């Protein structure tokens, strides 16, 4: 019956600004950029080689509680990803890579306040 999740919306205030952040800063690839009958573009980005996509949809993001992230992107090396993104202007909160029993994470916000993290699992948590 159910097969897989293909899209999750990231609510953004400006689609062009969000597209720039997610492609040029984070490094996701642009997938779909198509007009819709109601006005906003259907604009998606994703990790190269993976089917799942974020839809950069106009709206007001909800504010999640600090201490976790709403969106997680798996990386090969969290410290390298942290340094690369930091050099591209990403501000991390807290300002260091976090060490957990399951692996490492570095948390940040996009320009609209969506909470994200890059994560490197270890042991059974490695994907």
UniProtKB/TrEMBL annotation:
Q: Which residues form a coiled coil?
A: none
The entry lists its GO molecular-function terms as: lyase activity
The residue ranges of the VOC domain are: 4-121
Q: Which terms are listed as keywords in the entry?
A: Lyase
* SUPFAM superfamilies assigned: Glyoxalase/Bleomycin resistance protein/Dihydroxybiphenyl dioxygenase (SSF54593)
InterPro entries per the record?
Glyas_Bleomycin-R_OHBP_Dase, Glyas_Fos-R_dOase_dom, VOC_core
Q: Tell me if Protease is a UniProt keyword of this record.
A: no
Q: What is this protein called?
A: Enzyme related to lactoylglutathione lyase
